[in-house]
Amino acid sequence: MGYYDETDLTREHVKPTKQKKSIKPFFTSLLSGVVGGALVLGVTTYTNQQEEPKVSTDNASVETFEQTDDPDSAVVSTEKLSASSNSIADIVDSVSPAIVGITNLQSQNSGDIFGNFSQRSDSESVESGTGSGVIFKKEGNAGYVLTNNHVIEGAESIQVTLFNGDKVEAELVGADALTDIAVLKIDAKHVTVVADVGDSAALRTGEDVIAIGNPLGEEFTRTVTQGIISGVDRTIDVTTSDGNWALNVIQTDAAINPGNSGGPLINMSGEVIGINSLKISESGVEGLGFAIPSNDVIPIAEELMKNGKIQRPFIGVGLVEMSEVPEYYLRENMNLPENVKEGVIVGNVSPSSPADEAGLKQQDVIVAMNGEALSSASELRKYLYTETKIGEQVKLTVYRNGKKMDVTLKLTNRDATNA
């Protein structure tokens, strides 16, 4: 499943064949098809670049800013909204000025009327995709916007459409493909309202929520849809530009469509409790939308604002799922014991990486890290990124040519190895 609003759950499986093939040609083909672009761990893994609490009775507040000539001296006033008396219309009126449209602009070579691009060297920026975002912070002379990584991925420039219809340039502060979060910066003079961020851990299944965004682009700007929290603590397997990942999400039946990506999911106190990110779209499926919980979003956003990127432990291997390799190859060519049914295969090893220095080799099958059983690349990444730290030593349990062994390596910062 990719980070797209039109998520297709159809999966293709590699069927085994009885014909024995040589190791090298098979892995060369496999690596170019499966690992190519390689999942280089930290380990190394949406766009329609058009291409989700207990109902609190606490008062919600929306920060508003009176404009002055000096952005740093903006006067802050707070409007209190009663959760018990708010209608959806009240919430929409209060929060909408913090909702923005986002346009991903990329260069396109210009040619003559016959399509002879080689005769001209100029290029122009064209709309590659659109999405939504929400202003969640104002500091000094900058306003900060939350959106999805897949909305802005690959952009050469980013344009933000404000509540009043004005279009302004945005600077990319930082983005993270695995968690699908990006932070943009705009001039503070354009910020009149900052949305409150709520506590997604307080959510309960069945609570009312609304989604605001730009489905299908600016023609339907700030469309409001209503639904409920259909489930909390869901995990969705997604495919990103940095590899496969198990994304923690909130499930909702509020309509989420292409262009809603990056927009807020809002509770009845007017607080942002999620960033709408994807939906399952296939025949016979209705109302399965997902948002990244606010409690997951904010720490990522804060690190992006501080460092411009997310620092994660690095091993330095490309990975191949066991399900992608025919059974006969695992048993006859790699001599993997019959009782080993789960794990992840080392497809390649980055030179001078921790894996290289520890002696990991292509076709090693990693079955555990620090004693924790692993069945997929996604599980390996999840454990590595959430349970270990840069500089820590970890023990990998691997099978090599049928023999079980332990390999100890010291995790590094990916940037310390890869320029």
From TrEMBL:
<comment type="similarity">
    <text>Belongs to the peptidase S1C family.</text>
</comment>
<dbReference type="InterPro" id="IPR043504">
    <property type="entry name" value="Peptidase_S1_PA_chymotrypsin"/>
</dbReference>
<protein>
    <submittedName>
        <fullName>Serine protease Do</fullName>
        <ecNumber>3.4.21.107</ecNumber>
    </submittedName>
</protein>
<keyword id="KW-0720">Serine protease</keyword>
<dbReference type="GO" id="GO:0008233">
    <property type="term" value="F:peptidase activity"/>
</dbReference>
<keyword id="KW-0378">Hydrolase</keyword>
<dbReference type="GO" id="GO:0006508">
    <property type="term" value="P:proteolysis"/>
</dbReference>
<dbReference type="Pfam" id="PF13365">
    <property type="entry name" value="Trypsin_2"/>
</dbReference>
<feature type="transmembrane region" description="Helical">
    <location>
        <begin position="26"/>
        <end position="46"/>
    </location>
</feature>
<dbReference type="Pfam" id="PF13180">
    <property type="entry name" value="PDZ_2"/>
</dbReference>
<dbReference type="InterPro" id="IPR001940">
    <property type="entry name" value="Peptidase_S1C"/>
</dbReference>
<feature type="domain" description="PDZ">
    <location>
        <begin position="301"/>
        <end position="402"/>
    </location>
</feature>
<keyword id="KW-0812">Transmembrane</keyword>
<keyword id="KW-1133">Transmembrane helix</keyword>
<dbReference type="InterPro" id="IPR051201">
    <property type="entry name" value="Chloro_Bact_Ser_Proteases"/>
</dbReference>
<keyword id="KW-0645">Protease</keyword>
<dbReference type="InterPro" id="IPR036034">
    <property type="entry name" value="PDZ_sf"/>
</dbReference>
<dbReference type="InterPro" id="IPR009003">
    <property type="entry name" value="Peptidase_S1_PA"/>
</dbReference>
<feature type="compositionally biased region" description="Polar residues">
    <location>
        <begin position="56"/>
        <end position="65"/>
    </location>
</feature>
<keyword id="KW-0472">Membrane</keyword>
<dbReference type="InterPro" id="IPR001478">
    <property type="entry name" value="PDZ"/>
</dbReference>
<feature type="region of interest" description="Disordered">
    <location>
        <begin position="48"/>
        <end position="71"/>
    </location>
</feature>
